[in-house]
């Protein structure tokens, strides 16, 4: 009986330690995500204010910035295990700045009030799904491949619609996009939570920082893309 009690106490202690480690790691991830979003927002606002956004949209520079962003995301995701933590941090912050430059162009298309309102709606939806991802006992790993297929479908349909210019397809993509990025938010948060529970906090400061950066990048992308999809519904044109 004594052995059972000791075993039970040990099990509870381990579970509590894992939960605490997961909470600390999630806090680091969300902090870096917030830093990235804040940096993007500041760069976007001041770029639009300065008039530089007018020099970016519809020019080869805009495409160069988009390609640079894609390159940074793929490089950071593929090389996260091999690069230094400071390099990963710099790449993430650099991506946030580049994204701010390209997103500055939304101030040319939508009113500031509708952009701010859409941001709040996005924050609410993102927060709700993040909480769900943290507290649910349901294994969301099976959603990953399904959501990834949905993401690929959105990209391909968006490319096709450049040539078709179909308003019905545009709205269909937007609706599916909202559903996909809402699902990805919950899935990514649960995945990050599991990283904390499975011992990343015991792997040293460098591993923790890199894990937090790659987790922040995933959530940052979920938030930004959800925001852009919702802006199609709630954004008010400046015209």
Report on the structure:
With 239 residues, the chain is mainly alpha-helical. It contains nine helices and no strands. The protein has helices at residues 2-50, 52-56, 60-79, 85-103, 106-109, 112-135, 143-164, 167-197, 205-234. Helix 3 (60-79) runs antiparallel to helix 4 (85-103) and helix 6 crosses helix 9. The longest helix is centred in the N-terminal third of the chain and has 49 residues, at 2-50. This is Membrane protein. It is found in: Membrane.
Distance between the termini: 76 Å
Spans where pLDDT lies below 50 across 5 or more residues: 1-9
Tell me which oligomeric state these chains represent.
single chain
Overall geometry comes to globular
Q: State the domain count.
A: 1
Family: Belongs to the BI1 family.
InterPro entries: Bax_inhibitor_1-related
Protein name: Membrane protein
Membrane topology: Multi-pass membrane protein
